[in-house]
Amino acid sequence: MKTTKLMLGLALVLMTFSCSKDDKSSPMTADEAKVNAKIDLMNDDVSNIVEEQEANTYVDAEGRAANADDGTSVISDCAYVTRVPAFGTAITPGTTVIKTIDFSHFSAEGCTLANGNVLKGVITITFVYQPEATSHTITYGFNDFYHNTIKFDGTKTFTRVIVEATASTLAHPRVTMNMDMTATFPNGNVYHRVGQRVREIIEGIGTPALADNIYKINGSWTTTFPSGTQSSIISTTDPLHIKMSCMAVNKPLIVSGVIEIVRNGNTATLDYGDGECDNTAIFTVNGNDYTIVIGN
User: Fold this and answer.
1) Is the peptide bond before 173 cis (omega within 30 degrees of 0)?
2) Strand boundaries in 50-107, DSSP class E
3) Do 272 and 257 contact (CB within 8 A), yes or no?
4) Among 1, 8, 127, 199, which lies 20 to 30 A Cα-Cα from 170?
5) Collapsing DSSP states into helix, strand and coil, what is residue 266?
6) Is the pTM of this model over 0.90?
């Protein structure tokens, strides 16, 4: 009897080890590509919000406590913004500014952005007010923050650099998002992402409206999944493009570009399309194509 139990136990251990090993060496799945896309969606929204809130301070140093729902802001009036020093107070160069964007201030249901994504909790940004500088560093962090039911934790930095004007282009910002964050999905799965995303406006520079803004994104990052680690890089020949006009139809903002994903020697791609405002992307692995739906 003891021998039988020992053999059964050994068989279970070997089976568990074999399954674990197979899971970690297997190619990516369409479901994992969708997880990647959902995290990307959150990165896009946070990039928009953090960049706008820091830049607004230089447009109007006395600022305002909430954002008007007038088409000129990424966030609508359902988000409540507070600041230290307080709004209405003049800020002198060298002052540390802390802005808190609370998406649950008015409702426990959260705040629905113009693109249809629902945010809850708080994003806090901290930076030094330097109106004459051409490079700005902004620290961002989350407090009980949810993006479409996915909880995000972590603290990292943005760097916003003003690119000098040329004969064909006005001066404009280039923003590098340094990522070190954890995403917890409703099913309990936890994902950790580190890396960089670099975003630069290429159309709509100098106009007050958001709808005509188009951004180009490059970057690379590593995401640790329950089933193994993936390394992702945006294709240098086909970078991502964000079209802000897609907010009008509540669609994800990434409209084109390709992300190359590698894990344990297996390579896959996530293709966001040809520039149309839609909520799909094509995931290709081992020569097979899968259409995945992105968004809330």
Assistant:
1) no
2) 80-84, 96-102
3) yes
4) 127
5) strand
6) no
Residue pLDDT, tens place only, 232-284: 999 989 999 999 999 888 888 899 999 999 988 889 999 999 999 999 999 99
What is the length of the chain? Answer: 296
Exposure letters 213-247 (e unless 16+ CB within 10 A, then b): bbbbbbbebebebebbebebbbeeeebbbbbbbbb
In whole angstroms, what is the distance from residue 132 CA to residue 150 CA? 38
> In the structure encoding, which two tokens stand for residue 194, read together?
């580190």
Residue with tokens 């706008």: 52
Q: What is the CA radius of gyration of the chain?
A: 22
* Residue 84, SS3 per DSSP: strand
pLDDT tens per residue, range 99-126 = 999 999 999 999 998 888 999 999 999 9
CA–CA separation, 80 and 90 (whole Å): 20
Under 8 Å CB-to-CB from 211, ≥6 apart: which residues?
71, 204, 244, 245, 247, 248
CA distances from 188 to 86, 138, 147, 149, 281 (A): 38, 30, 15, 11, 25
Compute the distance between CA of residue 258 and CA of residue 45 in angstroms, rounded to an integer. 19
Cβ partners under 8 Å of residue 294, min gap 6: 34, 37, 38, 41, 252, 254, 279, 280, 281
Token duo for residue 252: 């994800």
Which among 100, 72, 44, 85 is positioned nearest to 217, based on CA atoms?
44
Is pLDDT of 6 > 60?
no
Enumerate residues 6+ apart whose C-beta is below 8 A from 60: none
- Tokens 């994800």: give the residue: 252
